[in-house]
């Protein structure tokens, strides 16, 4: 089948593949070669192919899967993906190949693949929403694609034009959206996972010469429940007696998720694997996630894999929404985080001061003890906006107000604003409508 024509995006200005990912050709002077030699000063440099969504080739899945029921065990397993995926390979000598939309299935990797030994991998997480108006929407996909470029270059993976990645994502969800998010299920979503891995088949600690970009769409449950994720453990009835909201276990000084000058700002696999042991220990103790602290001052950074916010009054009486800053590149530049901050500044500016600064667990503890902490919540793609009701720190439980119901008042308002944009109840530039299409045989 001929590729579907997609309008080409302008070249991404801050990325120069030729400079960053190819070796320059030595000059005749530097090598001692003359006009009779093998190389010449006017030999052209190799041209690397850019990532180009307009060249996408389609292959229809002739053995489609059945659509599971909402909230079924298959959904909670988080391993059921849609019928198709996007793949595109890259090499240092030729650049990006022709992208393909093909049946979802396994990847082929050699045991010596770079990703398996050196964590040369990055990924993104975003959602496709079925709006209450019947339309499919992505939420700020340009932010995810831009961040993936940042993550890729942090671990020596190839650069690309983020606009072209967004086009590939849109083609995948336009193809599988009608079946996997039927109009009969408004208010539902799919979780999207663009990923890039280095798949060279040689060992050696060096910059990868081969990479694979792929995009999949997976069925995911909603984690922003009032009872938190630990409510899904073997004894959920025990938790029904507890207050709603996430329960967080503050990390100890000898356990660090990220550090200044590291890669905490990049969405790379190496940020997540080392944190799983601490997360497992927290779950075993009845907590939902780890509240990651840093240094002897116990700077507050993130809650699990989500950004963390508090709403408190200062001792001078100012009402503030506070979250950790991006400057030290310790925390992830979350899309939900950014959206919370922008909406709060725009719509709560006269009521709440929005602050990005370092703050410590001792400050938070004092605000609880003095009755100045109004609420706290985690924000991210997977957890969305999830209120926090308890933080365990140095042997003590800090009880966090949650207002009426299972959410703090400000968290509930911000969550409603975002929900309305995502599901089309508010027309907003952040909600990118995707036109559905039929994939012909």
UniProtKB/TrEMBL annotation:
<dbReference type="InterPro" id="IPR001544">
    <property type="entry name" value="Aminotrans_IV"/>
</dbReference>
<dbReference type="InterPro" id="IPR043132">
    <property type="entry name" value="BCAT-like_C"/>
</dbReference>
<dbReference type="Pfam" id="PF01063">
    <property type="entry name" value="Aminotran_4"/>
</dbReference>
<dbReference type="InterPro" id="IPR005786">
    <property type="entry name" value="B_amino_transII"/>
</dbReference>
<keyword id="KW-0032">Aminotransferase</keyword>
<keyword id="KW-0663">Pyridoxal phosphate</keyword>
<dbReference type="InterPro" id="IPR036038">
    <property type="entry name" value="Aminotransferase-like"/>
</dbReference>
<keyword id="KW-0100">Branched-chain amino acid biosynthesis</keyword>
<keyword id="KW-0808">Transferase</keyword>
<dbReference type="InterPro" id="IPR018300">
    <property type="entry name" value="Aminotrans_IV_CS"/>
</dbReference>
<protein>
    <recommendedName>
        <fullName>Branched-chain-amino-acid aminotransferase</fullName>
        <ecNumber>2.6.1.42</ecNumber>
    </recommendedName>
</protein>
<keyword id="KW-0028">Amino-acid biosynthesis</keyword>
<comment type="similarity">
    <text>Belongs to the class-IV pyridoxal-phosphate-dependent aminotransferase family.</text>
</comment>
<dbReference type="InterPro" id="IPR043131">
    <property type="entry name" value="BCAT-like_N"/>
</dbReference>
<dbReference type="InterPro" id="IPR033939">
    <property type="entry name" value="BCAT_family"/>
</dbReference>
């Amino acid at each position: 089948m001929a590729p579907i024509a997609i309008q080409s995006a302008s070249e991404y200005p801050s990325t120069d593949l030729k400079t960053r990912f190819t070796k320059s050709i030595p000059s005749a002077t530097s090598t001692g070669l003359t006009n009779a030699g093998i190389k010449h000063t006017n030999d052209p440099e190799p041209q690397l192919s850019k990532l180009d969504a307009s060249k996408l080739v389609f292959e229809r899945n002739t053995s489609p899967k059945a659509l599971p029921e909402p909230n079924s065990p298959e959904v909670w397993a988080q391993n059921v993906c849609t019928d198709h995926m996007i793949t595109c390979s890259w090499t240092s000598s030729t650049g990006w190949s022709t992208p393909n939309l093909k049946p979802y299935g396994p990847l082929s990797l050699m045991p010596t693949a770079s990703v398996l030994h050196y964590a040369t991998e990055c990924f993104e997480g975003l959602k496709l929403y079925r709006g209450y108006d019947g339309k499919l929407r992505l939420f700020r996909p340009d932010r995810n694609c831009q961040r993936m470029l940042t993550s890729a270059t942090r671990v020596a993976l190839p650069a690309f034009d983020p606009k072209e990645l967004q086009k590939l994502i849109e083609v995948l969800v336009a193809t599988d959206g009608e079946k996997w998010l039927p109009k009969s299920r408004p208010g539902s979503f799919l979780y999207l996972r663009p990923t890039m891995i280095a798949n060279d088949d040689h060992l050696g600690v060096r910059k990868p010469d081969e990479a694979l970009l792929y995009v999949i769409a997976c069925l995911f449950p909603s984690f922003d429940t009032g009872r938190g994720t630990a409510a899904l453990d073997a004894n959920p009835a025990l938790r029904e007696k507890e207050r709603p909201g996430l329960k967080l276990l503050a990390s100890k000084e000898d356990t660090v998720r990220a550090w200044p000058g590291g890669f905490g700002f990049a969405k790379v696999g190496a940020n997540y694997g080392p944190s799983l042991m601490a997360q497992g220990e927290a779950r075993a103790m009845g907590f939902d996630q780890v509240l990651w602290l840093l240094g002897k001052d116990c700077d507050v950074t993130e809650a699990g894999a989500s950004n963390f916010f508090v709403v408190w009054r200062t001792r001078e009486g100012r009402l503030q929404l506070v979250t950790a800053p991006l400057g030290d590149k310790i925390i992830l530049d979350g899309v939900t985080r950014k959206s919370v901050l922008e909406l709060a500044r725009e719509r709560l500016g006269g009521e709440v001061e929005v602050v990005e600064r370092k703050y410590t667990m001792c400050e938070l503890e004092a605000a609880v003890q003095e009755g100045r902490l109004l609420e706290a919540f985690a924000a991210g793609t997977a957890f969305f906006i999830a209120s926090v009701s308890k933080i365990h720190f140095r042997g003590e439980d800090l009880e966090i107000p949650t207002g009426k119901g299972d959410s703090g008042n400000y968290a509930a308002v911000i969550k409603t604003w975002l929900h309305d944009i995502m599901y089309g109840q508010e027309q907003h530039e952040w909600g990118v409508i995707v036109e559905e299409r039929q994939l012909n045989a």
